[in-house]
Amino acid sequence: MVKDQRFLIDCGEGTQRQILKSGIGFKRLNRVLLTHGHLDHVLGLAGLVSTFLRWESLNALEIWGGTWALDRVQDLIYGVVLRGAKPPMPLHLIDLKPGVMLEDPDYTVSAFPVVHRGRDNYGFVFQEKPRRPFLVEKAEALGVPAGPERARLVRGEAIRLADGRVIEPDDVLGEDMPGARLVVVGDIGDLTGLDAVAQDAHALVIESTYLDADGDMASAFGHMTAGRVARFARDHGVGTLLLTHLSRRYRERDVISEARQYFPNTYVVRDFDRYLVAKGRPVQKLTPANEVVEEDIDLDEVGELE
Question: How far apart are CA 265 and CA 52, in angstroms?
Answer without folding.
Answer: 38
